[in-house]
Protein 1
Amino acid sequence: MVTLENIQAARAGIREAVYLSPLGNSETLSKATGKRVYLKLDNLQMTGSFKERGALWRLLQLSEAERVRGVITASAGNHALAVAYHASRLGVKACVVMPETTPLIKVVSVREHGAEIVLHGHTFDEAYHRSRELEKESGAVYVHAFNDPWVIAGQGTIGLELLEQEPGLDAVVVPVGGGGLISGIATAMKKLKPRIKVIGVEAESWPAMKISLEQGRIMEIGATETLADGIAVKRVGDLTFPIISELVDQMVTVTEEELANAILILAEREKTIAEGAGAAALAALINRKFWIKEQNVAAVVSGGNIDMNMISRIIERGLAKDGRRVRLVVEIPDRPGSLHKLTGVIARLRANILDIVHDRAFIRGSFGNTEVEATLETRGRDHITQILEELKAAGFRAREET
C-alpha cells in the first residue's frame, strides 16, 4: 500500500531535482465554468510532464548492484522521457520500449537523453509486453510507468503541493491512464483533507478505468486512435485499481473534440501548451462532465509534449468544436451572379471565407442548381446560426456539415 508517509518521503527525496510547478487561478475559466478554477501546470517540468516525479523516486531506490544492471521500461512517451533524463543524471543505463505510434518529438527527446530506444507495436500494451521480454533477457531492473508503489508515491507529491499552494481547494480533476497519478494524488489529499473531491478523466475511446470500476474488477479494453496517447492504456494497474476504487469520487470521459478544444483553450487563453492527455482534466471541467457543489477546483495539466505536426490539426478541430470554423453546403442557381450574391451575404455578416468549392456532378437537387461548399471563419455558434438564417432569407438552401 502507498501511504501519506511514503509520499512525504518522496517529496523530500525529489524536492531538489523536480520543479515546483505553479498553481494559478484562471479568471477566464472561472467565469466560463462558474467555479474558481486553478491550473496545476506540471507540463512545465524539465521533460514536459509529471512523470519525472515517480520515475526519479523509483530510480533513487536502486541499489548499487541494480544501478550497474541498468533499467528498462515501456512508455508512450512521457514516462520514457522522465526515466531517460533522470537515469542519465544518475549515471544509470536505460532502455525504453515505445509504441511505433509514439509522436516523433518524444522519440527524439528520449534519444537525446541517452537512452536506448526500441520501437515495438501500436499500443502501450504491446510495447509493455516486449519490454518484459527484454527485461528477462537483459537482467535490467523494470521501472513501471504506473503499477509501482514508488512511482505512485512520487506522483502523489502533486497532491501535497496542491494543498500547500491553495489550502482552500475543494476538488481536483486528474487525467487517468494506468492510474498512477490519481492514485498518488488521492492518497495524499484524502488523508490530509478527507472531504476533498477527486475526479478522474479518461479519453472516451480508452475508458479502461471507468469500465473496470463499473464492473468491480480490472477489465481489458480494445485499442483505437486518440489525441490523448499519454493515457491510452488497455489495462489499468493492479496496484492503482483498489486505491482508485476506494478514494476517487467520480470517473468521467471526454471526447476527441472536447480534448482538441481544451488544447486550444489552454494555448489561446492560458498561454500554455498541453498534449491531449494533459488537457483531459480541463476538457472535463469546461464541458461539465461532472457535477459538484464545491467551488475551488484544480485541474492538473499533466503534460505538454505535443507533436508540432499534429497541433495544427488539433487546433482546427478545436476551432470547429468552438464554433469558430464551419463548413456550409449551399445550393445556389447555376447562373451568373449567384456566387456573387452568396459571398455578398457572407461578407456582410463579417465571416471570412477560407475555402470554397463548386460541385455540379453530385448535387442532389435540380439540374438548374449547383452546390457550393464553403469553409468559413466565424465568431462562434451564434454567428453560424445568424449566417444560416440570412442565407435562407436570401433564398438559398444551406446546411452545416458536421
Protein 2
Amino acid sequence: MSDESRPVLIVAGEASSALYAKRLLEFWKEAHQPVDAFGIGDAAMEKLGFQRIGRSEDMAVVGFKEVLKHWGHIKEVFNQLLAAVEKKKPAFALLLDYPGFNLRLAKKLKAMGVPVVYYISPQVWAWKKGRIQQIQQYVDKMLVLFPFEKTFYQEHGVDVEFVGHPLLDELDPKLFSDSDRKEQRQRYGILDDEFVVGLMPGSRHSELDYNLQRQIDVARSLYIKKTSKKLRFVLFVAPSLEKEEIQRRLQTLDFPLLLVQEDPFYMIRMADIVLTASGTATIFVGLMKRPMIIMYIMNSITAFIARRLVTSTPFFGMVNIILGKEVGREYFQENASVKKLSEALTKLIEDDSYRQSVEEELNHLSSCLGERGATQRVAESLSGYFQEPS
C-alpha cells in the first residue's frame, strides 16, 4: 500500500453517525493510515483534519416540511460533494444512515465509478422497503449494526457484514461506578435523596421544535403534582446542539430545571428514569440500563406518511425493536399527550418493582448488539478499498 493519502468521501449527516465517523477517523490516525477524508461531518471530525463540505449540524433535518424548508442548502451541498468527488476521485465513499440524501448520492457515485459502502443501514426493514432496490443497485457493501439486518440483506442478495454496534466501545466501566455517579450528581447540586427524571428531546433542531416543549410541559405537570419521591428534573442537551439555543427556548420556564451538556452516557448516568425522543438516544439510555418512556412528535404531514409506511414492526423505539418487545412504553404524535406521558412516568417513579423489571429487561440489550470493536471491524472491511488502482 502506498504511503500517499487516498481521498475518501464520508457522509455523516446526523449527530450519532458523526460520532461513529469520528471514531473511524481516530482509528485510521492511530493506525497511521493515510486518509484524505472529506464530505459531511461535525466540528469534532473537522478537528481531526476532515474537510467539511457540509455541516452535519445543519443537515440533520427530519420530516417532509423540514426538508423542503432546507432544500436549497441541501441541494447545494449535494452538488458541492459531486464536484469534490470529480476532482478528488476518492478510493470509496462511506455513507452513514441519512437515506433520503445518501441513496440519491449513491446513484450518482455509482455512475462515477466510486465504490459505495453503506455503514448504519436505513431502516428499510421497517418502512420504505422500495429502497432495497436502490441499495441492490447502487451500494457495493452494507455494514450493519444489528444481526437481524444481516439476515434481511442476505435475503435480498446484498453483500452485507455485521460489524456490531459502535456504542459498545463508548461504554467505559467507570460509567457503572456508584461512587463516581454520586460524585457527579453532587457536582451538579443533586442531593442523595433526589430522584432524577432526565429529559432527552433529541439532537436535531426540528426535534426541539416538536419534542422539547412537550417534555417541559410533562416535567412541569409532575413538579406540580408531587409524588412520593423528591423529584429533580434535568434536561440533557445533545453535544451537537448549542446550550445557549436551549436556554433561549426556556426563557419562560417557571419551575426548577437543570441543564447539563456532557458526553451522553455520562449525562444519562445521573438519571433514575428518562423521558426520551425516539432514535439512537434510546440505545444510549438502554445501555445505561435506565428505564425510559419513549415519545416522538413530528409535523402532521410527516406523521401521516409514516403511519402508512411503517408496517413491518409494531414499535418505533430502536431499543424495543432490538429487544422485540415494548420495554420502554411508546407514545407517538397525539398519543404523546402531557397526561399520558405524565401517567407513564409516574408509574416508573412510584412502582419500584415495575421499574426494576424494566431494568432487568434492559440487561439483555448489550448482548443483542454484538461485541466491542465495531470501528476496527469497519476499518478492516474497508481496507481493501485503499489498494492502489491498477
